[in-house]
Amino acid sequence: MNIVILHASPRKGNTDAIVERVKKYLSADEPIDFNDIHLPKEAPVFCHGCFSCFERGESTCPNANFIQPIAKKIEKADGIIIATPIYVMQIPGALKAFLDHKAYRFLNHRPAYFGKKAFIITNTAGAGNTNAIKYLKQNFSFWGINNITTLGITLQAASLEDMKSARQQKVIKEIEQKSAAFLKQLKTQHSEKRPSFLSVIMFHIARSFILTLPQNNADRQYWKENDWLDASKNFYVDQTPHWYQTLVGKIASRFAFK
User: Fold this and answer.
1) What is the rounded distance in angstroms from the CA atom of residue 195 to the CA atom of residue 248?
2) Distances in Å between the alpha carbon of 204 and those of 150, 231, 252?
3) Which of 43, 103, 108, 239 has its CA 20 to 30 A from that of 227?
4) What is the secondary structure of the chain as a DSSP string?
5) Nearest Cα residue to 236 out of 199, 210, 209
6) pLDDT by residue (tens digit) across 141-193?
């Protein structure tokens, strides 16, 4: 089993301490290949907003030499962990900058992460977990991932070690419980969930848009290679949407570009 861990913190502190506990729990019964990626060091770049990844492919990104080695590890992984502290009520800039670079994997471009499992871990001395988790869940959803475990820890102290004993034990128990939930998802070969309403609607709207693009556009070529331009297709992968999801998606696609 292969898990990529995206570390957003520029230092070794509370986030790393929590991740080490998670890793220890996950690998207690069987070996797991963890790929730790420290974004502030390994992807110290900002998206240029040049659209090159959309139009000509991710390899043409000006920062591809930083982003693509990480992207390839994600694509080979069974699970993705994002571990981040909260800075000023949100995620740090290094994580946001990396996610900006991954926009080409959104549902309306070239999604490829269906079936992967995700674990969001945030921590803060005070507030901001809710905002950050909501944002990161939205990003995963637009990547096509609908099996998402979340863990938001409010330390109310400078570190895990400085927490009051009773609260510390409560947090450790929560770490173990959420790690167990993520491990259970990892061991589930196929998702039993139907596609989300968002992803079904996005499929139909995106197809209408993709058909307006030039033949040599990277997004259009990708959709053609996956047979998603076929009007008989109702979703990206072999998950059957509810009939009403498909209906709403088709109606939405008719009016989206009028």
Assistant:
1) 13
2) 29, 9, 8
3) 103
4) -EEEEEE--SSSSHHHHHHHHHHHHHTSSS--EEEEEEHHHH---------HHHHH-GGGSTTHHHHHHHHHHHHH-SEEEEEEE-BTTB--HHHHHHHHHGGGGSTTS----TT-EEEEEEEESSS-HHHHHHHHHHHHHHTT--EEEEEEEE-SSSSTTTS-HHHHHHHHHHHHHHHHHHHHHHH-SS--SPPPHHHHHHHHHHHHHHTTS-TT-HHHHHHHHTTTTSTT--SSSS----HHHHHHHHHHHHHHT-
5) 199
6) 999 998 999 999 998 888 888 888 888 999 999 999 999 999 999 998 765 56
Nearest to 204 by CA among 237, 258, 245: 245
The CA distance from 126 to 129, in Å, is 9
Q: Which of 63-77, 93-107, 181-195, 244-258 has the lowest mean pLDDT?
A: 181-195
pLDDT tens readout for residues 115-141: 999 999 999 998 999 999 999 999 999
Question: What is the length of the chain?
Answer: 258
Q: What order of strands is seen across the sheet that includes strand 79-85? A: 33-38, 2-7, 79-85, 117-124, 147-154
Query: Could you tell me which of 151, 145, 97 has the C-alpha nearest to residue 118?
Result: 145
d(CA 63, CA 70): 12
Helices 197-210/129-142 angle, 10° precision:
50
Judged against a pLDDT cut of 90, whether residue 194 lies above it is answered with no
Across all residues in the chain, what is the average pLDDT? Answer: 94
Q: Which domains does the chain have, with CATH numbers?
A: 2-187 (3.40.50.360), 197-256 (no CATH)
